[in-house]
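Hi V.,

You were right to ask for the full record rather than a summary. Here it is.
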Amino acid sequence: MRITANTYTNLVISSSQTAQQKLATLQQQISTGSTVQNPSDDPLTYGEATQTQDQIAQLGAYTQAATQAASMTAQNNQAVTSIHQIVAQAGEYLASVTSNMTSSQLQDIGTEMSSLVSQLTSLANQKSADGTYLFGGTSNQPPINASTGTYNTSTNGDETTIDVQPGNPVTVGIAAGHSGTPPANGFLYDSTSGTDVLGALTQAAADLNSGNVTAVQGADTTAVNNALNLVSSYVGSTAANMAAVQTATTALQQQTISAQDNLNSLTQTNLPNASVQLQQLEMQYQASLEAGTRLMNLSILNYMGNITVN
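Predicted structure:
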């Protein structure tokens, strides 16, 4: 193999270009904080990082859904808990009735019972922040006709769910329900047992105002107790939905942290190590340039020394 002056020059240039590329790569990794910018940097790592980023995005979407579900389930639980307190108060009113009460005394209790019906109506006819009715199913109508104190049979018993995790739907939209044909099941009416919360309180108020103590102490008391049991079941179910959302939220947070840590381990630049490598490479690059310059000068002198002068 023939060694010429150009050989040394090409070697120095090639070595210099390689070192410059390595320096540029390290400088980019330090400035961006990422070891992988393009697929060509590291195809395998880039693919794993892309999959992890997709996972983080999906977890973010579920986390956002869980946040919405948390608000809705809390609102549901607050509403049925308040209704439970109203029905319990109605039961206390009925338990206070005695056979020797005057008509005026019974009417006073009847007035209090009517006030409870009004409070119940307000709670059942609540609207969300966007103006839709919360408990009318999917009809977006008030469950109770406020002017007549009767059920709005245009509503339905459809409930809505939100997936807070893959394959984990949580009920976030509950219905008040109503009697009629066909009936709609919900926290105010159950067609299986015939329990009617609004009807129980309304009938009790009417019997109190009319002085029908027998009905108050008998059928009305039984109906209100059944109503209390129905609402109690919704207090429990909405509390369970809240707990399910909280459990999902905690799991999503842990999974997101784990995925983010994995992504960082795949792509994040180890700044201390990269800085040391950069310093070492700069020193090697400088030394290479100096050595190359000496070799090139030496080769030219040797070449000139071998020229025969005639």
